[in-house]
Design a protein that fits this description.
This protein is of the alpha+beta class. Among the domains are: 102 residues, Beta-Lactamase; 115 residues, Beta-Lactamase, CATH 3.30.450.20. It is built from 8 helices and 10 strands. The protein starts with a helix and ends with a helix. This is Cache domain-containing protein.
Length: 311
């Protein structure tokens, strides 16, 4: 008889355990669905915040060159286009900032005072030089020379309200690539910049030689993100990612910040697993506490305090 009572007692504990675990399983499944939605939303917010910070850095990178060139324009005017003095300043600038492949000084007669270029006629007739001669700062589209990427930035030289010349610099985009690597400080997020045609101007986390060699369908990506930032799209690897993009003013470039969906789900599964084990330990703790109370090993008051701590 004692054996039967003992078996019934254990059977009661087993049934209690099963009854307790079943709702935990359903709750965990529901929580997973809710949590993955929250995780995706949090991920998109993180991408937005990180992207905006990176956008500021890229704009500052560009503006720094424009500031230098405007300062050189004022110096050129002050030196009355004196080639000797200007050449010294140009050499100093190139030494301190190797991103300058070449710097050109052009007068209002469309003559190159400083700087050497092979395709002289094509260069002087480019829209960048013509725009600067008409008084407007301009940046060229990306130029590829010997597997390297460059841009031309031209600023006008003003004498009061009149344009009397142009300062133009050919800039190596490797410095932009270096900048992006330095500010991409999250191991699970990658950022890169493309031009208006989708050509990558910087390397990516998963394709170190992407710069100048990889082209993506930028309009398709923008359309996907505009439709919904919480719906994944396939990136250049054909991998599903969550992402956001930022137009870089006056360049035609786009900054893309993205994260693999599998990484997001993996992080979410880790959270769920921790929750499952925590719930299981709570259940086992409550069952053990119940047994101790029934066998009068601990009193009601102590049991209540332990129960509060478990829950």
């Amino acid at each position: 008889m004692k054996i039967i009572k003992k078996n019934c007692k254990y059977l009661r504990y087993i049934l209690l355990l099963i009854i307790s675990i079943i709702p935990t399983i359903f709750t965990s499944a529901s929580f997973y669905k809710i949590n993955i939605t929250n995780t995706i939303e949090e991920t998109t917010k993180t991408l937005e915040i990180l992207g905006r910070r990176q956008l500021v850095s890229v704009i500052d990178w560009k503006n720094e060159f424009i500031y230098d060139l405007n300062a050189l324009a004022q110096f050129t005017l002050a030196q009355n286009f004196n080639k000797g003095q200007i050449s010294k300043m140009i050499e100093y600038m190139k030494f301190n900032k190797p991103s300058y492949r070449e710097i050109y000084i052009i007068n209002d007669k469309n003559e190159i005072i400083c700087g050497f270029i092979i395709n002289k006629k094509e260069f002087l007739n480019s829209y960048v030089i013509k725009s600067a001669l008409s008084g407007v700062e301009k940046m060229s589209e990306v130029i590829k020379i010997n597997d390297k990427l460059y841009i031309d930035i031209a600023v006008p030289i003003f004498n009061e309200e009149n344009t009397v010349g142009v300062v133009c610099a050919r800039i190596d985009l490797e410095s932009l690539n270096t900048l992006m690597k330095s500010i991409e400080n999250n191991e699970t997020i990658e950022s890169f910049i493309v031009d208006k045609n989708g050509l990558l101007l910087t390397d990516t986390k998963y394709f170190p030689e992407a710069k100048g060699n990889l082209k993506i369908d930028i309009q398709k990506i923008k359309t996907s993100i505009d439709f919904s930032k919480t719906i994944p799209y396939k990136d250049y690897r054909e991998v599903e990612v969550l992402g956001c993009y930022f137009n870089i003013n006056d360049t035609g470039w786009t900054l893309i910040v993205q994260k693999d969906v599998d990484t997001v789900k993996k992080q979410n599964r880790t959270i769920i697993e921790i929750g499952k084990y925590t719930s299981l330990f709570q259940i086992l703790g409550l069952i053990a506490l119940k047994k101790l109370k029934e066998e009068n090993i601990i009193n009601e008051e102590i049991a209540k305090k332990i129960e509060d701590k478990i829950l």
